[in-house]
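User: Need the bound-state model for D-glutamic acid:
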Amino acid sequence: MSDPRPIGLFDSGVGGTSIWKEIHQLLPFEQSIYLADSRNAPYGIKPQNEIISLSVKNTEKLLEMECKLIIVACNTATTNAIKVLRNTYDVPFIGIEPAIKPAALQSTNKAIGILATKGTLSSELFTRTSELYTQDINVIEVVGTGLVELIESGKKESDEIKLLLKNLLSPMIEQKIDYLVLGCSHYPYLIPVLKELLPSNVKIIDSGEAVARQTKAVLLKEGLLNTSQELKFRPKFYTNTDTEVLKELIQAKKYDLQVEFLDF
Ligand code: DGL
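Assistant: Bound-state model below.
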C-alpha cells in the first residue's frame, strides 16, 4: 500500500525548514506542507497554555490539508504541547527535542552547552531528559534571547547577531564545553557564525537528521510511506507574514520552491 498524502510540518516561524530539509533529503518521494507561524513568533517566551493553543491551531490547519503525519518542527512546541496533541488527534506526531543524550555520551570534557528557548529549557520534558543523561556532566544551559527574532527578520549573519551570540556563548566557552547542542530549530541557520565564534574543538549538534530517521521509521511502521518512486510532488510552504525571509532561507528561487501567504 502506498500513501500519497502529505507530511505536515509546523514551527513558530522559518526555523523548522532546517528540519524540512532533512526530511526532504531522506524522503524525496513524500509530498510535504510546511506552516511557518511567524506572526506568532517567538513561541519561546509564551506561557505553556498559549504554546498549546498555537500548536492546536497549526495542527488543525495541517489536518484540513489532509496530512498523514505531523512533524512538530519546533523544540518549544514539542516540549510544551506534543503530549496534548498526541492525546487529541489520531495522526502520528514526530517531535524535536535537544540532542542532549549524544552530546552527554560523547563529551570528553564532561561539559556541554545547550542553547534553547526559555520555553524549552523550563519544560518538564526537557528537565526529565536532561536529568536522565547528564548526571556526571556539567551542563551549561543558555536561553537564546533575541536570536529567533533576528533570524525571523532575515539577520542570521548580521553584526548584531554575532555580538549577541558572542555574549551568549561566553559562559560555555569559559567552562570548556566540547559539545554545543542546538535546542531550537531556528539555530542550525547560525552554524556558520557559531563556527566562527567557538573554539575549533567544539562540536555542534542538532536533531534534524534524527527527526528525519524517526519520521521514516514511523511511516514504515504505520504503513504510511509513499512507495511511488516518481518525483511528482512539489513541497508547499505557507507563512502568515511576509514571504520574503522564508523564500530567502530556503533559496526558493534556486530550487523552484513554492512559498505563499496564508492567513492561519
Ligand atoms: N523554532 C522554535 C524552537 O525550536 C523557536 C521557538 C520560538 O519561536 O521561540 O524552539
